[in-house]
Amino acid sequence: MKNVLVTGGAGFIGSNFVRYLLEHEAEVQVFNLDALTYAGSLENLKDLPHPERHTFLQGDICDQELVNSIFQEYAIDTVVHFAAESHVDRSIFEPDAFVRTNIFGTFTLLEAAKQAWLDHSPPAAEVRFHHISTDEVFGSLSPTDPPFREDTPYAPNSPYAASKAASDHLVRAYGHTYRLPYTLTNCSNNYGPYQFPEKLIPLMILNALEGKPLPVYGDGKQVRDWLYVEDHCEAIWLVLRRAPVGESYNIGGGNQPTNLEIVENLCEILDEAVPESPYKPHRQLIRFVTDRPGHDRRYAMDITKISTHLGWQPKHTLAEGLLATVRWYLEHEEWVRAIRQRGDFKAWMQQNYAQRGELA
Ligand code: NAD
Ligand code: TYD
Fold first, then answer.
1. Residue 348 lies in a domain
2. Strand bridging mode 54-58 / 29-34
3. Most exposed residue of 128, 129, 163, 320, measured as fewest CB within 10 angstroms of its CB?
4. 50 falls within a domain
């Protein structure tokens, strides 16, 4: 692992991973390819450790010529592929971008890797394509179902999940057909610093601070398996260094609160963290709103494989992670202001919540 192409490294998990990699791998050069869509921001890459080993490249992963040239120019030997459209609600309104970036973009990167690494003799050694995916490819669990395992059949329900499932299948097919050295991880819901405030946890924190409604979809009893983003980054790093080619691993936080419990928990943390708030108790801001169509009821990950094979366990409990996340948002007012002032963010909030009967 010398010249690492990180795609989507200006987004939430990608920017956390770039930071993690620069801190933990003294030798690597990181080439960060990101289109800077609404979800990506150079604000997420301020104050990187060892910035001399990081090169930002603005561009689209669907641009085959560009991607090929990056492999050639920077002698890429490792890909960590985060770039995606990532928000389920948006995939319901505008699935096109999900099909394009998540499926066609992954195909483009696989083609570039194949051409650069395999289409000559002898093929390149010590190369790796690591694909970042989600637990949502496995569908929805009932309250009594066991957690998802690596061999759970795929049953994606949203356009987002279906596009990620398709990309996972493409990665596997390139491994099987062309012997492209790949690894794959499916992770549960992440939270932590730099998450775009369209997702549940940052949205609730920022709305509560401004005294805006906290829109809980449906009955709020849906269950997610939450993982602090730094723990995800550590798991990916371990997989890159130690996992055999062709393996996939499930990654999760080992906790399954309901959405309502998460929101109530955040309200309690904010009541203590901002004792002078005029909106206390923040739980009075909770509103039940029209549910997401096709809303998956429950996700849960079985992490036995990554724990036994690679010795990985999440280091943060949910309570610690939520507290650290609230503190981060309180301490990064400038980041919050820059992200929230974007016109496309305001337009999204109008579109999503107006029709749910709640304007956030
Ligand atoms: P994000 O939406 O915060 O960031 C995505 C990044 O990809 C942005 O910086 C965006 O500019 C970039 N991007 C989008 N389209 C692009 C294109 N065509 N070309 C180049 N760059 C493009 O997403 P995230 O939450 O950080 O998720 C990152 C990855 O992790 C995704 O693949 C997602 O499916 C996966 N994942 C996310 C979660 C989660 O809870 N957020 C959980 C499991 C897996
Ligand atoms: P989200 O953060 O969008 O992640 P995902 O859909 O990938 O799980 O949502 C997490 C859960 O929170 C999901 O069950 C939907 C719910 N939710 C709300 O109840 N209200 C909201 O405003 C949002 C954004 C999500």
1. no
2. parallel
3. 320
4. yes
Q: Is residue 356 part of a domain?
A: no
pTM for the whole structure: 0.98
Ligand 2 atom closest to Cα of residue 214? 22
Residues in Cβ contact with 118 at an 8 Å cutoff, skipping those fewer than 6 apart: 124, 178, 179, 180
pLDDT digits over 299-344, tens only? 999 999 999 999 999 999 999 999 999 999 999 999 999 988 887 8
Ligand found nearest the CA of 157: 2
User: Dihedral, CA atoms, 317, 81, 60, 33, nearest 10 degrees?
Assistant: 80
Distance 40 CA to ligand 2 centre (A): 19
Among the atoms of ligand 2, which is closest to the Cα of residue 295?
A: 14
Residue of 20, 160, 174, 194 marked active site = 160
- Cβ proximity of 130 and 80 under 8 Å: yes
CATH of the domain at 28: 3.40.50.720
Domain range for residue 61? Answer: 3-191+228-254+295-316
Say how many domains are in the chain.
1
**Is residue 247 flagged as an active site residue?**
no
160 is catalytic: yes
